[in-house]
Amino acid sequence: MAITDIDVFAHLTDTDIENLATELDAIRQDIEDSRGERDARYIRRTIAFQRTLEVAGRVLLLASKRRSAWWAGATALGVAKIVENMEIGHNVMHGQWDWMNDPEIHSSSWEWDNLGASKHWRYTHNFVHHKYANILGMDDDVGYGMLRVTRDQRWKRFNLFNPVFNALLALLFEWGVGLQHVEIGKIVKRRADQEEARRRIDEFLAKAGHQLVKDYVAFPALTALSPAATYRSTLTANLTANVIRNLWANAVIFCGHFPDGAEKFTKTDMVGESKGQWYLRQMLGSANFNAGPVMRFMSGNLCHQIEHHLYPDLPSNRLAEISVRVRQVCDKYDLPYTTGPFLLQYAKTWRTIAKLSLPDKYLRDTADNAPETRSERMFAGLEGFGDTDPATGRRRGLKTAIATVRGWRRSKRASSSGASGRVPGRHAA
Question: Name one GO cellular component term (predicted).
């Protein structure tokens, strides 16, 4: 089951958690105090680059009868949409650049290149997801109402199609983003206020209609005026660009929330939650992936999902330097810092989604000790943790405790395997 007592799970005392909050607050303060022209120049140059790339893609599509121009235009446009959604739109709407007091680059005024209305996203993502991150029954991003990503979600027959639903969600990710705030499930079950539901639907249709006309009517019609292009060639290029953006955004976001080590929590665990416990939940519920400068930029710096969840309103270009200090804090308190190669992290999310398409009776691990579902109950019988090892002088906390339990499990499986492999009547060598 999900974590019900984060203090016990993390093997930290009240004083530890208080000190953890103080140290993480200090990192925030340092970054806030050092924000300035370098950061403002970064976001302005990023916006200029994205707009130039988009124009280049549109110009290339004026010759989209040629296969090379079609691919070049569709790719340039797809990358431009990725940069706009990931490094600009997502981060601007988080308020990361509000300190500049620039009305063009402000969370309240930015409208992104996506089917979802910005005002809807700011509520479902900025408020609900980040405040209640990975709390079952409160954070809709845990499976998006479609996918079973933890054993805490009761298995239903439609979960057999988990991989199919995930593939569709990846291809149509902007539709998932746009429809999330509409809460279709509540409307169908008649659990939503009719007036409020109608308002949300109207706002979604207005934004989605604008995007569909732009991508599939207006731009193809303009490009068709060129003798080297057709309406259809531009329409298919725009569709391809949107799919490129959808697949990449889905992969990046899933790598930050569903690989092994991204923990889930119960509603009871947030009752009376202190600032330190909130920080701890963000750290344990998120995951990073390894990335160089280009990958960081293309992911909107969400390769640093842990740091983003700790400081969602700090400039994205500072997350790399923040990550060094956060990792030091994790080492100090012996907390896991979940990261790994991008393809490996993404493969783990697919493995979880495929595995959980089956009923629990077909799964090997327990509901309290599985890669995607863990709780403090996995440490039953474990003693002497949460303090300092007298032999090494190092803290024995969550990271060491998990490694110890995993060691037990490996030994148990090895013993069982060895016993089953022995030939009756003979002694093992």
Answer: membrane
